[in-house]
Amino acid sequence: MQRRALLQLGLVAASAPTLALAAGKAILANAHGAIGDGETLNTKAIQAAIDAAAKTGATVALKPGVYRTGAIFLKSGVTLRLDKGVTLLGSRNIADYPEMPTRVAGIELTWPAALVNIYRQKNVRIVGDGTIDGDGKVFWDSYWALRREYDPKGLRWAADYDCKRPRLIQVFDSEKIELAGPRLRRAGFWTVHVCYSRDIHVADLNIRNNEGGRGPSTDGVDIDSSHDVLVERIDVACNDDALCLKAGRDADGLRVNRPTYNVTIRDCVIRDASAGVTFGSETSGGFYDIKVSGLTVHHPTPVGILFKSAHTRGGTVKDIDIADMRLHDVATVLRVNLNWNPSYSYAEIPRGMADVPPYWKVMTQHVPPEQGRCRLSDVRISDIKAIGAKTAFEVAAFPDLPLERFAFDGLDLDAQAGGRIANAKDWTFTRSRIDTLDGRPPEIAASTGVKGL
């Protein structure tokens, strides 16, 4: 634990001097042919500047302008500095994002690269006050078109994988990475995806994915089978999970078996999302040693704290600390749903379909029940204040596999109803107030050892 604490302190201390160093002399992508007119495709020019910078560990910068580009790949030792007035604008052509091995929504497969990629590199930084704009509406529209085709066929579960959309920033199998400062806009798919990586600092991002529409599955920051990660001061409005922990899906996630651990998320503002902080639904590799604090969550975000999984996910989730949250008109304070979104969570190939993508077969591999159920325990939730909630608790698990050892301290909840807690074991409430319209506490069902309510 001491080493982890020192590592996190090191990440925090590194953020200020990193920005100072990056402000010095830089290689201009304009010198390699980049034109900031919003129309010219600058992929080759920007990549040439990055490749030149990689030879000496230099910084890449651009003159003020709007630079249309396809996927670019940062290299070890390089800092990409996006100054105020600089915008990287994503290509609308999926062909400008080459396909490569990665993980998407918990499944390893070949998929389009992100707009900005840190792929199997180390000591890379993206800093500055500029903007990375995915211009993602064309990809959102293609997704909804596919959903209209797939949903009647019982293929809701396949749509997110078959509709290939570029993420905004991918950090994959990399270490000692810093992403600090830029404004992130209109991601085609997830905004920041940190996968199979360690020693990561993500800070001071302003994420807006609902401009010109509501981008489907435009998660804010996803930490996926990674460790030693610090996420802080994120201001996010998106159309799915804002700050999310992931660790693989079903048989493929159980095969990979890489947990997410030693993650700190703090001092963030969630303005519009599916939840303030989310664990899952990709739980297969498990989570532990996760600390979340200092979150402010606003309406129309419907849930403050969300744990979600499915009967085929598996994984162990434990040692979670959540503290100091403020929820404003958020409908549900805490939700635990281990049978989340069945039409998406459970893959089944319709009869008569033979020529299907290989990952469909992976996604439909059988997971035995003893491996498929998520185990959730040892969660500590403290100093949560909610005003204008409809329901305090929407919690359920399995009668023979209850949610164990949740400790609540310092809850101050104003809600229309207490809601329901089912399948809980050894839950404790101290210094907590749950004020409901009918004056009744949450209903306790099929639970043992719930004390203090």
TrEMBL record:
<comment type="similarity">
    <text>Belongs to the glycosyl hydrolase 28 family.</text>
</comment>
<dbReference type="Pfam" id="PF00295">
    <property type="entry name" value="Glyco_hydro_28"/>
</dbReference>
<dbReference type="InterPro" id="IPR011050">
    <property type="entry name" value="Pectin_lyase_fold/virulence"/>
</dbReference>
<dbReference type="InterPro" id="IPR051801">
    <property type="entry name" value="GH28_Enzymes"/>
</dbReference>
<protein>
    <recommendedName>
        <fullName>Endopolygalacturonase</fullName>
    </recommendedName>
</protein>
<dbReference type="InterPro" id="IPR006626">
    <property type="entry name" value="PbH1"/>
</dbReference>
<dbReference type="InterPro" id="IPR012334">
    <property type="entry name" value="Pectin_lyas_fold"/>
</dbReference>
<feature type="signal peptide">
    <location>
        <begin position="1"/>
        <end position="22"/>
    </location>
</feature>
<dbReference type="GO" id="GO:0004650">
    <property type="term" value="F:polygalacturonase activity"/>
</dbReference>
<dbReference type="GO" id="GO:0005975">
    <property type="term" value="P:carbohydrate metabolic process"/>
</dbReference>
<keyword id="KW-0378">Hydrolase</keyword>
<keyword id="KW-0326">Glycosidase</keyword>
<keyword id="KW-0732">Signal</keyword>
<dbReference type="InterPro" id="IPR000743">
    <property type="entry name" value="Glyco_hydro_28"/>
</dbReference>
